[in-house]
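G., before I forget:
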Amino acid sequence: MTGPSETIFLVDDDGAVLRAVSRLLRSAGYAVRGYPSAEEFMAAHHADTPGCLVVDIAMPGSTGLELQEWLFQSQSSLPVVFLTGCGDVPTTVRAMKGGAVDFLTKPVDEAELLGAVSAALQRGRLLRNKRSDRARVQALLNTLTAREREVFDHLLTGRLNKQIAADLGTVEKTIKVHRARVLRKLGVSSIAELVHLAERAK
Amino acid sequence: MTGPSETIFLVDDDGAVLRAVSRLLRSAGYAVRGYPSAEEFMAAHHADTPGCLVVDIAMPGSTGLELQEWLFQSQSSLPVVFLTGCGDVPTTVRAMKGGAVDFLTKPVDEAELLGAVSAALQRGRLLRNKRSDRARVQALLNTLTAREREVFDHLLTGRLNKQIAADLGTVEKTIKVHRARVLRKLGVSSIAELVHLAERAK
DNA sequence: TATCTCATTGGCCCAAGGTCCAATATCCGG
DNA sequence: CCGGATATTGGACCTTGGGCCAATGAGATA
């Protein structure tokens, strides 16, 4: 169920919490890495790392919310579970609006934490799958020349070669050639597949 | 900006709050209807009503969370803003996970409430637009006979008439006729448009 | 029973797409 | 200046799709 190198990143300024939660998650079979501050985590994090983040809200230096915002800006795909001792309603709302998977309060129920982590990992998998699929399609589209890309766009709207030729100020025969190249480069053999491919790109 | 009959539904067991918030929203130009209990609101509500719901969490009878769950079960498109005096973190998390637009605490800042209501109304508009569009497409698809629907599905995957005929155990000519009927019934003139139409249905 | 819908099939013709061939012109980097 | 990539165009040939007319058979319904 767990991916090859999924890691739970744990950020908490309280060393005792860090050790306790870390031990709990490890005993559940997860790979865990702990950080005593948001800064140290940020220095080590890369955007496409598989796993999830479990983070305290109130910390010296960057807070959990700031870390969440930083992940968003970094286009990271790492889902966030908040774990805090002193949560208030406005903070909870901000965290959840910001896309947090869950917002738990200490002392945390063991099953609750494991459930949240499991959900976060699952969400991360889906997100990474979607992203990598999209990246593959984008890479394919980037192999098209500018002209082929124009033809591609017209094909998506269902226009005939003749019409595309008129739009682009050339003749049908030329479009026919571009069309064939577009289909071959993108590895599809019908307009239906072409449209489905385009859907995956956005 | 505000739709023709958008209404803000206000549910709070405290008559004073009901009157005060109601006056505030009305003075901002909104149409408001107040209910002293979730039950009375539920009795009057229909799933496609345009507007949004502003509801207290703690009430005698059904609570705000129960009302939110009821709206979900009813497939209502009404976005929810919670407004409460005694919110705790777990409740906030449940509400936000349940799709709430916002979760505000009394005494509420006027601008905050107006902002949340505006966001909720906007979300409701998008949701209703999406739903009605989907319903239109579904209605179109329902005009297809069972056989036409089969051909439709195969067309979406980009198969040739000849191949579809083999799959369905008939000859190409028959598929050709079905294909033409499908395109005409759905009001499209190309496979690309057909695929786009199908995308809108789900 | 008569009518209607639906699925089926045929023929015919034309339009459009797919695939070979080859050729010319431009532009860009080595 | 030359080779490579790109855009362009032409021809020939075959396949596929679209429209039109006509017809049959099954099943449901009035």
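The beta strands of chain B are 7-11, 31-35, 51-55, 80-84, 102-105. The longest helix of chain B spans residues 110-142.

More on Monday.
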